[in-house]
Design goal:
The longest helix is centred in the middle third of the chain and has 19 residues, at about 145-165. The chain has helices at about 1-15, 20-35, 55-70, 85, 105-115, 120-125, 135, 145-165, 180-195, 220-230, 270-280, 305-315, 325-330, 345-360; strands at about 45, 80, 140, 200-205, 235-240, 250-260, 280-285, 290-295, 295-300, 320-325, 370, 375. The N and C termini lie far apart (about 55 Å). The chain contains 14 helices and twelve strands. The strands form four sheets. It has a three-stranded antiparallel sheet with strand order 1-3-2.
């Protein structure tokens, strides 16, 4: 009987779902999937999951609200005292922070708990919107999500996206297009990108981006991509907001692979050519700083990020993924975030350049592929 009541309560939570903002869905999706230029492999910070044009307060309160509704917690949540003064030097004057005497007693108490690392997610909720976003930015938590928590949130998101596709969500505050319209807008943009770049590319959506005809508040970019992945039109390799080219996080960037189902009229890949490419031996000569593919050679500038990328990729077997920060550490001779100077975007750009050069000089379609935060050789 008790279990039956719990099941009914779970179902009612989902059945009464209102439309989420794209930002709220992005925060939860990002927490579950990662992807993009995260600062470390093992740790999340709230600004890693903050949506385009949003605030860390919004991302923190949104994620915590959902976790609390399922009686779950953020695994390994802690206040990073070391990173706080580095990131927020204006507020750091000798001490970590000086508590504002005008703050309400409840908020002041929550701040004290967080600074001493003796707090709960309720204390984070208390300081959200209180002008203490710098503290929230210095909170970090484990990227490895407990299976029980992941299972609950994933099931919720799956059901929510199904309802989005079936047009079953409520629109109590503002109107959104039906899914077919959302789908049409997205596919129109994807078709243009496929014509220009092929099936693998990065697409950007924001108020000042060129990929879409115009900014439309009735259109939900994040919802549409996740829904189309569920329908097997595409694969999402990563979605992010902040990077080297957009430090203010004003737009969404999504690295995707379009499937044949998306545009069936497009010409299929040439399997014969692919087999011919794969039959040739491809090696990297570190001393000569050259990639050799059959009788052709590609000179790689020694000591560059492309060189480091090749060194790591050719030490591994074809298809074995290498994390972007392993490449960054290879470039910097570093062993962690504190010593790292090479940015995610620099590694990603080196990957793009390497493929472009391989196509021009070696006559191969692609040397390596990018998926989520990893890169691997395809030949």
């Amino acid at each position: 009987m008790v279990q039956r009541l719990k099941n009914m309560e779970e179902k009612s939570k989902i059945d009464k779902a209102d439309y989420w903002s794209d930002g709220k869905l992005y925060t939860v999706w990002k927490y579950l999937n990662g992807g993009g230029p995260l600062r470390t492999k093992d740790v999340f910070r709230f600004w890693d999951i903050t949506p385009a044009g949003g605030s860390v307060d919004d991302s923190a309160s949104g994620l915590i609200w959902l976790l609390r509704s399922y009686k779950e917690k953020l695994s390994g949540i802690r206040f990073n005292k070391k990173s706080y003064p580095k990131i927020h030097s204006k507020e750091h004057e000798g001490k970590i922070i000086s508590i504002n005497k005008k703050l309400e007693a409840e908020t002041s108490k929550a701040v004290e708990k967080i600074l001493s690392n003796k707090f709960s997610i309720d204390d984070i909720s208390t300081i959200c919107g209180s002008g203490k976003s710098s503290i929230i930015k210095s909170l970090e938590f484990d990227r490895k999500i407990p299976e029980k928590t992941r299972d609950k949130l994933s099931k919720y998101i799956d059901r929510y996206i199904e309802d989005f596709i079936e047009n079953l969500l409520y629109t109590s505050r503002k109107n959104y297009y039906k899914f077919e319209k959302q789908k049409d807008i997205t596919l129109l943009s994807l078709r243009e990108s496929v014509k220009k770049y092929g099936n693998d590319f990065t697409i950007e959506y924001g108020k000042n981006t060129a990929e879409f005809a115009s900014w439309d508040e009735k259109y939900l970019f994040i919802h549409s991509l996740i829904a189309l992945e569920r329908l097997k039109y595409l694969n999402i390799n990563g979605i992010w907001v902040y990077d080297f080219d957009d430090p203010l996080g004003e737009s969404y960037k999504a690295e995707i692979t379009v499937e044949k189902k998306c545009f069936p009229e497009s010409s299929p890949r040439n399997k014969k050519t692919k087999r011919a490419e794969g039959s040739k031996s491809t090696v990297f000569d570190e001393k000569q700083s050259k990639i050799k593919h059959g009788s052709k050679e590609l000179k790689i500038p020694y000591g560059t990020i492309e060189y480091c990328l090749c060194r790591i990729l050719f030490k591994e077997s074809v298809g074995k993924p290498v994390s972007w920060d392993e490449v960054a550490d290879e470039c910097d001779g570093a062993r962690g975030l504190d010593e790292r100077k090479t940015e995610f975007r620099s590694v990603y750009d080196a990957y793009l350049r390497l493929n472009d050069k391989a196509r021009q000089k070696l006559g191969i379609k692609k040397l390596c592929e990018w998926k989520k935060m990893t890169v691997f050789r395809v030949i």
